[in-house]
Amino acid sequence: MAQVGLDRATRMAFYEDIRRQYQDRAVTLQRARDDARALALQTDAVLRSISVDLGFVDERIVELDSIISNLRGYMDPRIVASLPTELLRQIFSVLAADVAARWEMETKPSMDDLRLPYRLESVCRRWRAEVLDCPALWASVIVPLADSEPEIGHVNAHVARCIARSGRLPLDITCLWNMPHEQPIVAPELQQMILDSLGAESNRWGRCSFAMPYLSFPGTSLSESLRRSTPLLEELYIAGVTSNDFEGDEPEHPAYYLPHCPNLRTLVSKDSDVLLSHPHAPLLSLVHLRIVTELAPPTAVWTMLQLAPSLQHFDFSLGDDTSMSPVISQSRLSLPALQTLAVRIFAAGWLNAWAPQMDMPNLRRLELDTAEPELFDLHQLFSRIESTVVELSLCNDGYELNERHCEVVRTLPNIRSLHLGEWENILPSFFRELAAPSLCPQLESFSVGGRQDIDQTAAEAIAHFVRSRTVGLPSDSSTPRRLASVDLESAAGVPAWLKDQVATLLTIPACS
């Protein structure tokens, strides 16, 4: 029995030793498993990230395949390949002209227009050869805002490609980098490469639109490019591209002056010091001028107007209240071609002070969008233009339209067209006053626009006004004239019953 017990103890010790080995192995494996799990979590995160990126790439491939297949689907591949060269060139010329026709200074560029030549050249080798031989397809240079360094590289390559492939044609450049002021500019030194590429071609600028944050870091302002000669430039929209680093009236400051641009016909300058001409510069060919500025002294605008005798449309806003008192120039300003004058916020005081020295014999349209204190103090301006102005537009979304605004209408007795734009509120008292036969007796056309709602009382006043200028009046009535048209369709808050009633009143036959 003792021997049996010894054998069992030996066997138990043997198995316990093996068990300890397995336990040690289990601890090692558990640690390895924990490490593997941690690594797997990291790997899983990497895999998920890769999967997301791969999914995006796959979607882009599918999208591009769809675009290419849609292009190819319009024609049998054999027909596409056999199109005569002259027909291909004609098609591409029409497409290029269509893109150029859609160019607008203040409109976000179309990415479809940007991709057009690339889509065409991807159809087949022969199309690629013809696309590369069609400079007009590349002359509209659309420069999107890039928000990463790789994208900046792609945009820069695209700009270089357009410049090279457009030959010597004038360039239509759209560079709208509108960004919130708090958003940092990505890789400014790389963004500057794009601007440098565009600036180097200033002698080919035809129509340009630049809108971007202040580029105040060293060497990144567009000002230097805008000082170069631009002999082909016809339209320029520029906003916020120069550093606001000068103060006061500095007539010799070079940042005030435009480059040599003898063919410039349209200039829109917003919050930019790139708006003026040197006092001794040649006369400009400007037809349309819009200025919104806090940077340059308004007296310098007078100098620019003196150099634009062909100006037909002038839109002026100081953008902010100014502490500078209006300075009346000793010289006269003759604008014989001016037909439209738009007086915006904070500019009314200046134009009113300038009015005695201004000759505008052909001014027909006056647009007033200014604060009430200024609006009712434009006597000198009104006295200069009361005999010629026949169209009046009133709007100010910060104020109510009321009977006091009829004073403005009364000072312009030859008004034939009246437009009411955006207002905080439209009160019925304005239309009750306007219905008087002695007020605005030549009125033939009346319109209301804007997003403001017109309540029941105001709508009834409008209906009464239209009725007073239609019912019972002969077609040849001169005091007052019979309304020929009333447009309420562009207004957002006009009751449907009012539109119906106005339409009915306009169709009532005139008295004999």
Radius of gyration from CA coordinates: 35 Å
Measure the end-to-end span.
145 Å
Structural class of the helix and strand makeup? Answer: alpha/beta
* Helix share, percent: 40-55%
Strand order of the largest sheet: 1-2-3-4-5-6-7-9-11-12-13-14-16
Average pLDDT works out at 78
Number of strands: 17
Uncertain regions: pLDDT < 50 for 5+ in a row? 215-220, 243-256
Explained architecture:
The chain is an alpha/beta fold and 512 residues long. Among the domains are: 59-136, no CATH class; 139-242 and 255-296. It is built from 16 helices and 17 strands. The chain has helices spanning 2-73, 77-82, 85-101, 111-121, 125-132, 149-165, 188-199, 223-226, 298-306, 348-354, 372-375, 379-385, 406-410, 428-434, 456-468, 496-507, and strands spanning 140-142, 171-176, 205-211, 235-239, 266-270, 288-292, 313-317, 333-334, 340-343, 358-359, 365-368, 391-401, 417-426, 445-448, 450-453, 485-487, 491-493. The chain has a 13-stranded parallel beta sheet with strand order 1-2-3-4-5-6-7-9-11-12-13-14-16, sandwiched between helices. The chain has a two-stranded parallel ribbon with strand order 8-10. Strands 15-17 form a two-stranded parallel sheet. Strand 13, helix 14 (428-434) and strand 14 (445-448) form a beta-alpha-beta unit. Helix 10 crosses helix 12 (379-385), helix 14 runs parallel beside helix 15 (456-468) and helix 15 (456-468) packs parallel to helix 16. The radius of gyration is 35 Å and the shape is elongated. The N and C termini lie far apart (145 Å).
